Amino acid sequence: MLTKKEVVLHWFDEVWNNGNLAAIDELFAADGIAYGLGEHGINVVGPGAFKPFVQKIRDAFPDIHITVEQTVEEGDWIAARFSAQMTHTGDALGILPTGRRVAVSGMTMTRIANGQIVEGYNNWDIAGMMQQLHDGPMEATLLR
Question: I need a surface site. Which of 69, 73, 82, 135 has the fewest CB within 10 A?
Answer without folding.
Answer: 135
